[in-house]
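ARCHIVE CARD
CATEGORY: sequence design from structure
SOURCE FIELD: tokenized fold
FIELD CONTENT:
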């Protein structure tokens, strides 16, 4: 079992770095795509389509947007020791989970936070107990001002706690800045 946490700001090269690790592994690769399509956003749809086209043809893709959290955890638990998975990315996974609770956030912030933390903790545990090798891509947030909106603060706080949990348990952690990897833990 080997978890590699790959983090950094937007457009830093996180996904490309994880893909290079997968290609070099020689293992069977599964790409876990966590972004949910939004029919009202043509640029987002085009971006997701481009990402799908750029993946090697031999890779398997697991789309999580319509997948129940339990099904994702079961898929992770069912992977073999000789497999390499890329989980791309924690932030888009969390955004999908947060949007599912959008109405509850304003009315019951603490309850929504507790529910998201439980789901994030279960995912972090599954990723760091993965039988094979998994490159977990996570966006760095919180290096700027505290967000004005409750939902943005909730996203940032839950993501930060989840990423700390994964980084602490991962065998390797890499920060990408301007395409350059900085080994945080190896």
């Amino acid at each position: 079992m080997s978890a590699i946490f790959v983090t950094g700001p937007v457009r830093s090269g996180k996904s490309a770095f994880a893909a290079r690790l997968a290609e070099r592994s020689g293992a069977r690769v599964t790409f876990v795509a966590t972004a949910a399509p939004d029919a009202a956003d043509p640029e987002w749809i085009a971006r997701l389509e481009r990402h799908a086209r750029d993946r090697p043809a031999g890779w398997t893709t697991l789309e999580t947007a319509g997948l129940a959290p339990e099904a994702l955890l079961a898929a992770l638990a069912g992977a073999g020791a000789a497999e390499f998975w890329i989980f791309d990315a924690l932030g888009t996974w969390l955004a999908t989970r947060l949007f599912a609770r959008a109405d509850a956030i304003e009315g019951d912030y603490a309850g929504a936070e507790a529910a998201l933390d439980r789901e994030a903790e279960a995912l972090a545990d599954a990723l760091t107990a993965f039988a094979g090798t998994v490159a977990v891509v996570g966006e760095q947030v919180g290096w700027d001002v505290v967000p004005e909106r409750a939902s943005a603060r909730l996203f940032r706080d839950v993501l930060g706690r989840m990423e700390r949990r994964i980084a602490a348990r991962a065998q390797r952690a890499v920060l990408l800045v301007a395409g350059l990897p900085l080994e945080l833990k190896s």
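CARD ANNOTATION: DSSP finds seven helices and seven strands in the chain. The mean pLDDT is 93.
SHELF: design records, drawer C
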